[in-house]
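Um, can you check?
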Amino acid sequence: MALLARLNCREYKNWMKAGHCLLILQSRLQGYIDGEMQRFHQQLGTRAPRQRRRCQCRARGKQFEPGCPVCAAWKELILAHHNNRNGEIYWGNSNPSLWPTQYWEVAKVYMPRGQAQIRGPEQCDAAALLNLINNCDYFRVPNISRVREIIKCRNELMHSCDMTVSTPWLTAFGQKMYNLVTELKHVPGLVRECDKMQKVLLADWNVEDLGINEFDGLPPEGKMVLQGPVAQMQGPVAQMAASLSSLSPYEVEIQLIKELIQEMYLEIEEQSSLTKEDEDKVSKIKNFLCQNEDLKFAFQKDIKKLDSLCKTHDAEGWSYTRLSASFFTVFSLVILTAIFLGQKN
């Protein structure tokens, strides 16, 4: 079952449409935030001591205790502009020793987990960029609740393991996105892209309207056939903006599933275990990919990783069960022995 067959499910189309709008938003925020964060970093640099040589300070997870006066000063400055200074801050996203010289290492402190390997805004998804705006008071948004509403929508989208949302949800999402755009109308090109978002939300995505090649099973010669600019998505921010806002439905689908799987990996990594809810989610996503030959081919490595996660969890569960059984047996023997000796005495 390939893309056009999957689009027979209205709720799945809704999921993809909302995700497409987030990709369009992301493409416009990337260039804007790139320039704003460079200016913010320069401002902080005028108030912080210079780093004469690279220190050995390192952050881990939500903890960071500076080992030098320069990192201590930068930490104080970063916190002074952090709207969530008393909440969870993922210091481990960044390398403190690079704060004086690399603006994006500072930006990552205002973002959610999983940003350690990210080197610039062109590699960030909408959630990371919106959280930066929400958490850093340098971005003076009059009605910050509109930013938070879209963050919440995005999280609901990425936590839908069956990759579906209802039509009423999509309608409410469209209104919230419109509200956000009016709040961020100073972002270059965003108002213009709002029209494109509205067209995406209202489109039927009928078979004849898609303009993509449909295939059953694997693509010709075992290669993925993508008709948009996905292959060129390693360029600068401007190139990224152009490509992300003009993706085909199939490319949108690939991008969204990648993001959903990555979000799941981060959750499991953070809690260092696989809960029953996680196990069900992993199983649903793996089954969905395996039931669609084109997606099965595109996500071969992820399917193997998901399968490994389940097997590891099963093995750990079996070990725990055997350990519990052994403990119960020994405990029972001890009790019976004590009873027997008590009766004998």
Remarks:
- DSSP finds 14 helices and no strands in the chain.
